[in-house]
């Protein structure tokens, strides 16, 4: 009879509940680090890793299905590419003659530098931070998921 | 405070030796992480929180990945006998590099004295003077990373992208398939 009971995957209910509460705060902190990267310590890379950590926490406490439900592998791969492309497009737009003429010109800050110490300042730096955060968060989540799903497969298994 | 730095350095060296010499894989992983956290404390001591944030999170993530992914597979460490001739050659090479490095270390600025304080026309002085005006970003480290030296960041992002592509290509559900098999869109 005991075998009929479907045992829940992952860790104990206490760990699961606490992790599911905390993961939201981790996500918000990561997004804060990304968005305010040009004003306070932090930036796209650090914030992106923190966002990836929220999904890693979900994988560790409740199994990989819980995390993959929210971020499927295909979506993660696409977002990875979108982040890389967005960073490249930001760089290439500066190459056009009307906006500056050199690679990685900060054309937005040249036109309107914005008020210092406000969120909307720094021109392309804010956009680049968001692009890098997208890239880093999804790619590190991909690496973690791939390595956790890895298992040794023998020749005669198929 | 400089003595504290020396103690930290000693701790890191001991942790590194433990990581190499121990036979327990878990202990080796934790020792490597201890070395990383020593570097992070050194960054904080030098007042570089911008640099310290990334290693903290990456260190934790790598620790989780190493414990979760490598230890479950059941790998074992093998420590073989060291080759005496190879050891001697290594020591000789290290001695030669050390002799060459002594002259280089003479030219370096003293510990805790950045180049920009002794050289008025160093690039960092230009960044500090004009960074806020030119980029509008209050955090100068981000301004350098994503505006003045954004090309470096692009290279870094490219390396990350290429490594992820390699990982996905190697680690997937079906590593090899026969030409007759249909294309599998799922990873």
Features:
heterodimer; A: 158 residues; mainly alpha; elongated; B: mainly alpha; 72% helix
Describe this structure in words.
The complex is a heterodimer of chains A (158) and B (187). In chain A, helix 1 (13-35) packs antiparallel against helix 2 (44-62), helix 2 packs across helix 3 and helix 2 (44-62) runs parallel beside helix 6 (124-149). Chain A is elongated. Chain A is mainly alpha-helical and 158 residues long. Chain A has helices spanning 13-35, 44-62, 64-70, 73-93, 107-111, 124-149. Chain B has a domain at 1-80. Chain B has helices at residues 2-21, 25-45, 49-70, 84-107, 115-118, 123-135, 140-148, 150-170. In chain B, helix 1 (2-21) packs antiparallel against helix 2 and helix 2 packs antiparallel against helix 3. The longest helix of chain B is centred in the middle third of the chain and has 24 residues, at 84-107. In chain B, 12% of the residues are buried. The mean pLDDT of chain B is 84. Chains A and B meet through helix 2, helix 4 and helix 6 of A and helix 3, helix 6, helix 7 and helix 8 of B.
Please describe the topology of this protein.
The complex is a heterodimer of chains A (158) and B (187).
Chain A lengths: L12 H23 L8 H19 L1 H7 L2 H21 L13 H5 L12 H26 L9
Helix pairs in contact in A: 1-2, 2-3, 2-6, 4-6
Chain B lengths: L1 H20 L3 H21 L3 H22 L13 H24 L7 H4 L4 H13 L4 H9 L1 H21 L17
Helix pairs in contact in B: 1-2, 2-3, 6-7, 7-8
Shape of chain A: elongated
Question: What is the rounded distance between the termini of chain B?
Answer: 53 Å
Helical amount of chain A: 55-70%
Which parts of chain A are unreliable, with pLDDT below 50 for 5 consecutive residues or more? Answer: none
Count of spatially separate domains of chain A: 1
Count the E strands of chain A.
0
Mean pLDDT across the residues of chain A is 84
> Taking Cα atoms only, what radius of gyration of chain B do you get, to the nearest Å?
23 Å
Number of helices of chain B: 8
Oligomer: heterodimer
Order of helices and strands of chain B: HHHHHHHH
Number of strands of chain B: 0
Return the string of H and E elements of chain A: HHHHHH
> Which segments of chain B are poorly predicted (pLDDT under 50) over 5 or more consecutive residues?
none
Give me the secondary-structure category of chain A. mainly alpha
Query: Structural class per helix/strand content of chain B?
Result: mainly alpha
Profile the largest sheet of chain B. Answer: none
């Amino acid at each position: 009879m005991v075998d009929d009971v479907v045992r829940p995957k992952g860790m104990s209910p206490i760990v699961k509940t606490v992790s599911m509460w905390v993961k939201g705060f981790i996500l918000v902190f990561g997004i804060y680090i990304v968005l305010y990267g040009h004003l306070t310590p932090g930036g796209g890379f650090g914030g992106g890793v923190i966002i990836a950590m929220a999904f890693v926490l979900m994988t560790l406490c409740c199994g990989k299905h819980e995390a993959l439900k929210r971020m499927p592998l295909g979506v993660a791969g696409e977002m990875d590419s979108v982040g890389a492309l967005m960073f490249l497009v930001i760089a290439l737009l500066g190459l056009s003659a009307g906006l500056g003429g050199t690679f990685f010109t900060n054309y937005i800050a040249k036109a309107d530098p914005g008020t210092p110490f406000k969120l909307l300042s720094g021109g392309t730096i804010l956009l680049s931070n968001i692009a890098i955060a997208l890239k880093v968060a999804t790619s590190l989540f991909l690496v973690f998921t791939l390595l956790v799903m890895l298992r040794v497969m023998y020749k005669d298994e198929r | 405070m400089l003595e504290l730095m020396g103690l930290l350095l000693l701790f890191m060296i001991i942790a590194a030796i433990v990581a190499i010499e121990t036979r327990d894989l878990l202990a080796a992983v934790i020792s490597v992480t201890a070395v990383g956290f020593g570097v992070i404390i050194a960054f904080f001591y030098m007042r570089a929180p911008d640099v310290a944030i990334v290693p903290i999170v990456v260190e934790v993530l790598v620790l989780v990945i190493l414990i979760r992914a490598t230890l479950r597979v059941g790998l074992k460490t093998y420590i073989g006998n060291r080759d005496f001739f190879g050891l001697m050659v290594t020591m000789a090479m290290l001695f030669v590099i050390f002799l060459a490095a002594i002259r280089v270390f003479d030219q370096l600025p003293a510990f805790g004295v950045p180049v920009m304080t002794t050289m008025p026309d160093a690039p960092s002085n230009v960044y500090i003077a004009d960074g806020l005006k030119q980029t509008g970003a209050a955090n100068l480290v981000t301004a350098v990373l994503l505006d003045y030296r954004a090309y470096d960041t692009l290279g870094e992002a490219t390396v990350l992208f290429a490594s992820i592509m390699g990982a996905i290509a190697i680690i997937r559900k079906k590593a090899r398939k026969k030409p007759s098999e249909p294309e599998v869109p799922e990873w």
